[in-house]
TrEMBL record:
Predominant location category: membrane
Name this protein carries in UniProt: cytochrome-c oxidase
Originating species: Sphingosinicella microcystinivorans
PANTHER family referenced in this protein's UniProt entry, alphabetically: CYTOCHROME C OXIDASE SUBUNIT 1, CYTOCHROME C OXIDASE SUBUNIT 1 HOMOLOG, BACTEROID
GO cellular component: plasma membrane
Protein residues bound to heme b 2; high-spin: H409
Cofactor dependency: heme b; heme; Cu(2+)
Domain Cytochrome oxidase subunit I profile residues, every copy: 80-552
Keywords noted in UniProt: Cell membrane, Copper, Electron transport, Heme, Iron, Membrane, Metal-binding, Respiratory chain, Translocase, Transmembrane, Transmembrane helix, Transport
Amino acid sequence: MESLTIKAFGWLGAALIAIIAIALSADQGFAIHMAIVAAAALLALAATLSGADYASVARGILKAPVDTGRYDDDPVRWGVIATVFWGVVGFLAGLYIALQLAFPVLNLGFEYTTFGRLRPLHTSAVIFAFGGNALIATSFYVVQRTCRARLALPGLARFVFWGYQLFIVLAATGYVLGITEAREYAEPEWYVDLWLTIVWVAYLAVFVGTILKRREPHIYVANWFYLSFILTIAMLHIVNNLSMPVSLLGSKSYSAFAGVQDALTQWWYGHNAVGFFLTAGFLAMMYYFVPKQAERPVYSYRLSIIHFWSLIFLYIWAGPHHLHYTALPDWAQTLGMVFSIMLWMPSWGGMINGLMTLNGAWDKIRTDPIIRMMVMALAFYGMSTFEGPMLSIKAVNSLSHYTDWTIGHVHSGALGWNGMITFAAIYYLTPRLWNRQRLYSLRMVNWHFWLATVGIVLYASSMWVAGIMQGLMWREYGDDGYLVYAFSEVTAAMLPMYLIRAAGGVLYLAGALVMVWNVWLTIAGKLREEKPMTETPYDAAADRPLAPQPAE
């Protein structure tokens, strides 16, 4: 009873503070955000006072099995659904802004629907809402199975999930309202940053607490990558978002850094958000789900150790390659380039380890569309981690910088690597979390695979062509020493590429909608009657595996 009273007064206090902040707010955007916070606190208060077993209610709505006590999978199930939902939102926003580039009339003449407001909405929805929920859900699932222990601090685990959803809503509404710090991938204002810090520390506590109570002596490699991602993102987020609010009752703040130091801090954060959020975290997913789906051990544990420590050490230094040919000192640019080139080898170490884990299960690429997705994800990871170091070379960067080539590079990694491995993880998790015999339809997974793959190829290849064309047209001079092409001419020349990119986005979104339907019917307990994926079933004897490499 005492605990219930403390919780109720805590939520009531949070709601009252938010309501007072609305009344005294310095700007409209801050008032809107405080209204969202007040609504969330009042909902939590109502849930606390009602005394209802909302976990059981949620299980009933989601058709989830009864908790057996072995593992705490409720936050994982919620995370899977949130991942699917935010993925569709992010892809839809991306398609819309892709169409805006081809048809500017789609800006609609409203400040809230302009490209400048919707672009960060798209990037954050895909990276932090889709990717972040996938990482939180899979990390909670993996750490329990590999440690043979339930989640530590179950109440805090639920706070992490719901607190993260509140962060997403505050960030997204802030972008549309124009409340941002104008820092790429770190746009939310100071009070939203503070809230994310609280949620992230809670996430770290749950994850580390579960490892500490493990009943398995060894800490599996996937947990190394998850822990490095959680710790490093915390450090990056705190340092990059150091700022001074103009008012404690207003949304505006100013960075603690200025000039070239501000730029370097931003891209130290920006590049390592890619390195630890979109790489280390998703490598953790790869190291668990690829062996499980292939039913084979990790090919080389020794390689995973080398891969982990070299990646962790090298990635943190590579940020300056985003600032080639700027006011950043030349030695710092060169340092970033050198470390970026060195990153190629540990990155490919992870790709090779993932692909070689299929030793003895190569034939499953033909018969299992989930394995096919994983292989495609690893292929795009390898391609992106070769292209990235190549683009960091100053001679290449002189052509690619500020062009759509960079956009193509980012999306081949985000859609090909992060998207595909997340889709595969969702397809792996859904029947297991809901105790279903299998997915509703494997053939729909195959459709999703091909829609996504063709969509990525159209998107990335069109941006590669557009970017190289941009770079060449921008720097072409005539005999009189003047630029040959005006900016408007370059933009007009890229229209066909923008249309192809939008077509790729349509296909990728269509694949995601197929996934929504497949996951929903799997949760509902339905099975589609369908023929096997191939005429000849998987034949283990047809594979000729290489000998696995032990850790010692």
